Amino acid sequence: MLNLPAAPTPPKPQQQHSLWPAVLASPRAGLAAAVAPRRAQDSSLVRSFAADSAAVAQSMQARGVRLLALDFDQTLVSVHTRGMWDAGAADLCGHVRPLFRALLPEVLRQGIVVAVVTFSPQTDLIRDCLARTVGDGAELIIVRGDDGSWQRTAAAAGPDGELGKQAHIASACDEVQRLSGRRPSGPEVVLVDDDEDNIGAARANGHGVWHLRDGSVAELRGQLGGVAALRPEMT
Ligand SMILES: [Mg+2]
What we know:
Layout: H1 20-25, H2 27-34, H3 44-48, H4 50-62, E1 67-70, H5 72-76, H6 89-93, H7 98-109, E2 113-117, H8 123-134, E3 142-144, H9 166-180, E4 189-193, H10 196-204, E5 208-211, H11 217-223
Parallel strand pairs: 1-2, 1-4, 2-3, 4-5
Helix pairs in contact: 4-7
The structure holds magnesium ion.
């Protein structure tokens, strides 16, 4: 019997959402229109940070940030799913840090593209979680996880040879270029991550970094431009 090699699994088709044409025509207005106000559904904790999160997002836009790359486990959510979360999206959504529940819609309203960059293969679960967190605008968030849906290209490693999220970020930048005709680079990309190696690799590639550590609210306040309203329960 012939022992033929298995046919390679074709990559999943890239998502192309219907909101993108309006966003491409006018990135800032398009993204802003796509993200409807959801204040009525927000908790009082999230609402208490609304003005500050808008100011932080405006500051990012003014500093030329075009892509906010967000780690998922222990960053966007306060738990680690180990890529094996089986309790459903609603339960996982309960672990989204209120800080990002407040900040993400404002970042999108500023025309900054958001990408989730993660080693988790559970990207459908993550998209479901984003939809429950952000609403309609979540469909514009690029997700790069270890799900076989995108091709890894050469990405520079950090000083210790650590590749971190650089391949994920490079693919997200390719997607922004494909959609908008211009590739973000260097400090136009900011990585938010709890992992020191991922942060080091991003910094070595000239990206902005925001190292999120539990219990470091004072440090976070500094990184967010002296935001006073950031309370420990937001993170
Ligand atoms: Mg993490």
